[in-house]
Protein backbone atom coordinates (compact mmCIF):
# COMPACT_ATOMS: atom_id res chain seq x y z
CA UNK A 1 0.00 0.00 0.00
CA UNK A 2 1.13 3.55 -0.77
CA UNK A 3 1.93 5.69 2.26
CA UNK A 4 0.81 9.29 2.75
CA UNK A 5 1.16 12.11 5.27
CA UNK A 6 -1.72 14.51 5.91
CA UNK A 7 0.26 17.62 6.79
CA UNK A 8 -2.71 19.73 7.86
CA UNK A 9 -5.79 18.48 9.69
CA UNK A 10 -8.01 19.77 12.49
CA UNK A 11 -8.77 16.50 14.24
CA UNK A 12 -9.92 18.17 17.45
CA UNK A 13 -12.96 19.81 15.87
CA UNK A 14 -16.48 18.86 16.88
CA UNK A 15 -17.21 17.39 13.45
CA UNK A 16 -15.13 14.35 14.48
CA UNK A 17 -16.49 13.90 17.99
CA UNK A 18 -18.97 11.17 17.04
CA UNK A 19 -16.54 8.90 15.18
CA UNK A 20 -12.95 10.08 15.74
CA UNK A 21 -11.56 6.58 16.30
CA UNK A 22 -13.28 5.18 13.21
CA UNK A 23 -12.10 8.15 11.15
CA UNK A 24 -8.50 7.54 12.19
CA UNK A 25 -8.82 3.86 11.32
CA UNK A 26 -10.13 4.75 7.84
CA UNK A 27 -7.11 7.01 7.37
CA UNK A 28 -4.71 4.22 8.30
CA UNK A 29 -6.59 1.73 6.09
CA UNK A 30 -6.05 4.13 3.16
CA UNK A 31 -2.32 4.53 3.77
CA UNK A 32 -2.50 7.81 5.69
CA UNK A 33 -0.49 6.65 8.66
CA UNK A 34 0.84 10.05 9.71
CA UNK A 35 -1.26 13.16 10.41
CA UNK A 36 -0.30 16.60 11.67
CA UNK A 37 -3.22 18.07 13.58
CA UNK A 38 -3.05 21.84 13.68
CA UNK A 39 -4.07 24.31 16.35
CA UNK A 40 -5.97 27.52 15.62
CA UNK A 41 -5.93 28.94 19.17
CA UNK A 42 -4.61 27.98 22.60
CA UNK A 43 -7.36 25.45 23.48
CA UNK A 44 -7.19 23.69 20.10
CA UNK A 45 -3.39 23.63 20.25
CA UNK A 46 -3.63 21.86 23.59
CA UNK A 47 -6.15 19.41 22.11
CA UNK A 48 -3.75 18.78 19.22
CA UNK A 49 -1.02 17.91 21.71
CA UNK A 50 -3.39 15.60 23.60
CA UNK A 51 -4.37 13.79 20.40
CA UNK A 52 -0.71 13.38 19.45
CA UNK A 53 0.11 11.98 22.88
CA UNK A 54 -2.67 9.41 22.58
CA UNK A 55 -1.98 8.26 19.00
CA UNK A 56 1.37 7.12 17.63
CA UNK A 57 0.80 8.39 14.08
CA UNK A 58 -0.41 11.85 15.06
CA UNK A 59 1.79 14.92 15.55
CA UNK A 60 0.80 18.44 16.62
CA UNK A 61 1.26 22.00 15.43
CA UNK A 62 0.53 24.86 17.82
CA UNK A 63 -0.53 28.34 16.85
CA UNK A 64 -3.14 31.09 16.64
CA UNK A 65 -5.02 31.42 13.36
CA UNK A 66 -5.30 34.98 12.00
CA UNK A 67 -9.09 34.77 12.25
CA UNK A 68 -8.78 33.82 15.94
CA UNK A 69 -6.36 36.46 17.22
CA UNK A 70 -8.81 39.13 18.37
CA UNK A 71 -8.22 39.61 22.08
CA UNK A 72 -4.95 37.67 22.11
CA UNK A 73 -2.88 38.51 25.19
CA UNK A 74 0.70 38.30 26.33
CA UNK A 75 -0.42 35.37 28.49
CA UNK A 76 -1.58 33.59 25.33
CA UNK A 77 1.80 34.16 23.71
CA UNK A 78 3.53 32.88 26.84
CA UNK A 79 1.33 29.77 26.83
CA UNK A 80 2.09 29.20 23.15
CA UNK A 81 5.80 29.33 23.92
CA UNK A 82 5.33 26.59 26.52
CA UNK A 83 3.21 24.44 24.20
CA UNK A 84 5.83 24.68 21.46
CA UNK A 85 8.36 22.64 23.46
CA UNK A 86 5.93 19.82 24.22
CA UNK A 87 6.72 16.32 22.96
CA UNK A 88 5.48 15.59 19.40
CA UNK A 89 4.98 19.26 18.49
CA UNK A 90 6.53 19.50 15.04
CA UNK A 91 5.45 22.93 13.76
CA UNK A 92 4.33 26.45 14.66
CA UNK A 93 0.94 27.36 13.24
CA UNK A 94 -1.56 27.71 11.80
CA UNK A 95 -0.50 31.34 11.57
CA UNK A 96 -0.41 34.09 9.01
CA UNK A 97 -2.71 36.72 7.55
CA UNK A 98 -6.32 36.59 6.35
CA UNK A 99 -7.67 39.72 4.67
CA UNK A 100 -10.62 37.88 3.11
CA UNK A 101 -12.98 38.09 6.08
CA UNK A 102 -11.12 40.46 8.39
CA UNK A 103 -12.46 38.68 11.47
CA UNK A 104 -9.50 40.14 13.36
CA UNK A 105 -8.02 43.64 12.96
CA UNK A 106 -5.07 43.64 10.62
CA UNK A 107 -2.73 45.20 13.17
CA UNK A 108 -3.58 42.35 15.56
CA UNK A 109 -3.03 39.77 12.84
CA UNK A 110 0.36 41.28 12.09
CA UNK A 111 1.42 41.39 15.75
CA UNK A 112 0.39 37.75 16.20
CA UNK A 113 2.11 36.68 12.99
CA UNK A 114 5.38 38.29 14.06
CA UNK A 115 5.20 36.46 17.38
CA UNK A 116 4.91 33.15 15.52
CA UNK A 117 7.97 34.05 13.44
CA UNK A 118 9.91 34.80 16.62
CA UNK A 119 8.74 31.51 18.11
CA UNK A 120 9.85 29.62 15.01
CA UNK A 121 13.28 31.18 15.40
CA UNK A 122 13.40 30.28 19.08
CA UNK A 123 12.10 26.72 18.72
CA UNK A 124 13.72 25.81 15.41
CA UNK A 125 10.36 24.43 14.23
CA UNK A 126 8.91 25.00 10.75
CA UNK A 127 5.91 27.27 10.21
CA UNK A 128 2.45 26.45 8.84
CA UNK A 129 1.41 29.60 7.00
CA UNK A 130 -2.17 30.67 6.30
CA UNK A 131 -2.49 33.33 3.60
CA UNK A 132 -5.80 34.46 2.18
CA UNK A 133 -5.97 37.60 0.04
CA UNK A 134 -2.85 38.84 1.83
CA UNK A 135 -0.16 37.61 -0.56
CA UNK A 136 1.69 40.90 -0.87
CA UNK A 137 2.13 41.32 2.88
CA UNK A 138 2.91 37.66 3.55
CA UNK A 139 5.54 37.57 0.80
CA UNK A 140 7.25 40.70 2.10
CA UNK A 141 7.17 39.59 5.75
CA UNK A 142 8.47 36.10 4.99
CA UNK A 143 11.14 37.45 2.63
CA UNK A 144 12.43 39.78 5.35
CA UNK A 145 12.25 37.04 7.98
CA UNK A 146 13.88 34.39 5.79
CA UNK A 147 16.73 36.72 4.91
CA UNK A 148 17.62 36.93 8.61
CA UNK A 149 17.18 33.21 9.28
CA UNK A 150 19.67 30.46 8.50
CA UNK A 151 19.77 29.60 4.81
CA UNK A 152 18.23 26.44 3.43
CA UNK A 153 14.89 24.74 3.06
CA UNK A 154 12.59 23.55 5.76
CA UNK A 155 11.28 26.90 7.03
CA UNK A 156 7.69 25.76 6.69
CA UNK A 157 4.74 25.20 4.39
CA UNK A 158 2.38 27.56 2.61
CA UNK A 159 -0.91 25.93 3.54
CA UNK A 160 -3.75 25.59 1.02
CA UNK A 161 -1.80 27.27 -1.77
CA UNK A 162 -3.71 28.51 -4.79
CA UNK A 163 -1.73 30.97 -6.82
CA UNK A 164 0.73 31.32 -9.63
CA UNK A 165 3.76 29.13 -10.17
CA UNK A 166 5.83 32.32 -9.99
CA UNK A 167 4.53 33.01 -6.47
CA UNK A 168 5.09 29.40 -5.44
CA UNK A 169 8.71 29.62 -6.58
CA UNK A 170 9.20 32.77 -4.49
CA UNK A 171 8.12 30.85 -1.42
CA UNK A 172 10.23 27.83 -2.38
CA UNK A 173 13.29 30.04 -2.83
CA UNK A 174 12.77 31.28 0.74
CA UNK A 175 12.84 27.69 1.99
CA UNK A 176 9.12 26.89 2.11
CA UNK A 177 7.15 23.93 0.79
CA UNK A 178 3.79 24.21 -0.95
CA UNK A 179 0.76 22.51 0.61
CA UNK A 180 -1.94 21.24 -1.77
CA UNK A 181 -5.31 19.75 -0.84
CA UNK A 182 -8.52 18.40 -2.28
CA UNK A 183 -9.51 21.78 -3.72
CA UNK A 184 -7.02 21.31 -6.57
CA UNK A 185 -9.68 19.15 -8.23
CA UNK A 186 -12.48 21.74 -7.97
CA UNK A 187 -13.83 23.23 -11.21
CA UNK A 188 -12.88 26.67 -9.80
CA UNK A 189 -9.24 25.53 -9.59
CA UNK A 190 -8.92 24.69 -13.28
CA UNK A 191 -7.37 28.10 -13.89
CA UNK A 192 -4.49 27.08 -11.60
CA UNK A 193 -3.83 23.65 -13.09
CA UNK A 194 -0.88 24.80 -15.18
CA UNK A 195 0.56 26.49 -12.09
CA UNK A 196 0.13 23.36 -9.94
CA UNK A 197 1.79 21.35 -12.72
CA UNK A 198 4.77 23.70 -12.71
CA UNK A 199 5.48 23.51 -8.96
CA UNK A 200 8.46 21.15 -8.47
CA UNK A 201 7.29 17.90 -6.90
CA UNK A 202 10.21 17.90 -4.46
CA UNK A 203 8.64 20.98 -2.80
CA UNK A 204 5.01 19.78 -2.48
CA UNK A 205 3.28 18.26 0.52
CA UNK A 206 -0.32 16.99 0.69
CA UNK A 207 -2.95 18.07 3.18
CA UNK A 208 -6.69 17.90 3.82
CA UNK A 209 -7.51 20.89 6.06
CA UNK A 210 -10.22 18.54 7.31
CA UNK A 211 -13.04 18.83 8.16
CA UNK A 212 -13.00 21.53 5.47
CA UNK A 213 -12.35 21.43 1.70
CA UNK A 214 -13.19 17.81 0.77
CA UNK A 215 -12.07 16.55 -2.66
CA UNK A 216 -14.52 17.06 -5.52
CA UNK A 217 -16.21 13.59 -5.25
CA UNK A 218 -17.07 14.39 -1.61
CA UNK A 219 -18.20 18.01 -1.96
CA UNK A 220 -20.83 18.84 0.60
CA UNK A 221 -19.54 16.17 2.98
CA UNK A 222 -17.05 16.30 5.83
CA UNK A 223 -13.43 16.04 4.76
CA UNK A 224 -11.12 13.57 6.52
CA UNK A 225 -7.52 12.27 6.23
CA UNK A 226 -8.60 9.10 4.39
CA UNK A 227 -9.17 11.30 1.32
CA UNK A 228 -5.50 12.25 0.87
CA UNK A 229 -5.06 9.54 -1.83
CA UNK A 230 -7.81 11.25 -3.83
CA UNK A 231 -5.76 14.45 -3.84
CA UNK A 232 -2.64 12.49 -4.79
CA UNK A 233 -4.54 10.99 -7.73
CA UNK A 234 -5.67 14.43 -8.90
CA UNK A 235 -2.13 15.81 -8.62
CA UNK A 236 -0.80 12.82 -10.56
CA UNK A 237 -3.25 13.65 -13.34
CA UNK A 238 -2.31 17.34 -13.30
CA UNK A 239 1.43 16.60 -13.43
CA UNK A 240 1.11 13.61 -15.76
CA UNK A 241 2.88 11.32 -13.28
CA UNK A 242 2.10 8.00 -11.65
CA UNK A 243 0.37 8.19 -8.28
CA UNK A 244 3.21 6.09 -6.82
CA UNK A 245 5.63 8.90 -7.61
CA UNK A 246 3.34 11.49 -6.03
CA UNK A 247 2.90 9.41 -2.87
CA UNK A 248 6.59 8.64 -2.49
CA UNK A 249 7.79 12.20 -3.08
CA UNK A 250 5.20 14.04 -0.98
CA UNK A 251 5.58 11.62 1.92
CA UNK A 252 9.38 12.01 1.86
CA UNK A 253 8.97 15.80 1.65
CA UNK A 254 6.64 15.87 4.66
CA UNK A 255 8.90 13.65 6.74
CA UNK A 256 11.89 15.84 5.88
CA UNK A 257 10.12 19.16 6.51
CA UNK A 258 8.62 18.17 9.86
CA UNK A 259 11.63 15.99 10.84
CA UNK A 260 9.40 13.01 11.50
CA UNK A 261 12.22 10.47 11.24
CA UNK A 262 14.18 11.87 14.18
From TrEMBL:
A divalent metal cation 2 binds at residues 130, 159. GO terms for cellular component: cytosol. Pfam families: TatD_DNase. The lineage of its organism: Bacteria, Bacillati, Chloroflexota, Dehalococcoidia, Dehalococcoidales. This is Hydrolase, TatD family. Keywords: Hydrolase, Metal-binding. InterPro entries: DNase_TatD-rel_CS (IPR018228), Metal_Hydrolase (IPR032466), TatD-like (IPR001130), TatD/YcfH-like (IPR015991). A divalent metal cation 1 binds at residues 8, 10, 94, 209. It comes from the Bacteria. GO terms for molecular function: DNA nuclease activity; hydrolase activity, acting on ester bonds; metal ion binding.
Amino acid sequence: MLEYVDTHAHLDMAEFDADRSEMLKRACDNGVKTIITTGIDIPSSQKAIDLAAANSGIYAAVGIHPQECTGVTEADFARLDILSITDKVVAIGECGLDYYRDYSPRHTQLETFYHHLDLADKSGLPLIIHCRQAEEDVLKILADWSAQSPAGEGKGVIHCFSGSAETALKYINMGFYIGLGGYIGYPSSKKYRADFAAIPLEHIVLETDCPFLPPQPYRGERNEPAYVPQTASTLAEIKNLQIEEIASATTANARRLFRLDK
